[in-house]
Amino acid sequence: MNVGPANGSQFVLPVAPERLFASDNASGVHPQVMDAMLRANIGHALAYGQDAWTHRVVTQFEELFEQNLDIAFTFGGTGANLLGLQCLLQPWQAVICTDSAHIALDECGAPERFIGCKLIDVPGRAGKLQPVQVLEQLGNLGDEHHVQPRVVSITQSTELGTLYSESEIADLADTCHRSGLLLHVDGARIANAVAAAGCSTAALLAETGVDVLTFGGTKNGMMFGEAVVFLQPQLAEHARFVRKQSAQLPSKMRYIAAQFSALLTDELWLNNAQHANNMAQLLAQQVAKIPGIELLAWPQVNAVFATLPAQSIEPLIAWSPFYVWEADKQLVRWVCSYDTTAEDVSRFSSGLAQILSATRES
Description:
7-stranded mixed sheet, globular, about 350 residues, Aspartate Aminotransferase, domain 2, alpha/beta
């Protein structure tokens, strides 16, 4: 690809990185996960979760969380969030979340349409919700003229790549439970969060008081599949019926279970996430040196947010695609995956430097 300033001079960009920084959704299936699916593909097995792979992985999840659980596997993240939330809500009730939450911005109004509930989205601080913001929404509890908050939903790690600490989650859970609310966690990137937190999964999620968790697999090396983990099993009383009615019941569930089982074996899920987080650290180190790039913050997980000169964004995306997060601020997002390499980071950083230099001269 040739890029050049307005005076007509041009230069040849380095070869684009083999792997994209657009999203960890762009990555392929981890080889060990693919092997697990191929092994599960031998012979017949009963459908709808009545198979050995599903029974085995439920045990693995319970060992991970160090407690009894109820788990419902789904096809994708939006469906998993809907299933988890619908089991907690009546139509006159509401979900408190941040204005950057995936359920509020990126699920096409699915919670409002399919659950019939209202989302109360409040401004987040670096993508995070504060306990005081929850309390501010509770003034009309018991008033039949007003929607009734019932669930607080947070994302771990957040849409802005930030991380809730153990104490922050515990404070939110305590605020919820003292007020008669439940705490839901959208964990599309829960692996990256646990890897970054430096504590056990049980300590970060179960012991802090989370009630229901969407446990993401697709962004961590799976082909498809998410798990709705009911840390309070009694909340899953109607989950099987809700899942079927919402078209999220996989008949050949063994393929989702086999993938999760592979991830949970020998901590593959954490190793994948830690590598992606490390690559984001490396990327931040390299791009921070490039004139014209300003990091929004140092990455805590596998996403790097930065502002760029407006004129450089289009040619950069044409060279190696990524997403603009806030167009009016020229804020972009780069995401590393389990298979991102140091060579990918080096090529990407080099291309950024060259295009920014060229666009400054135009």
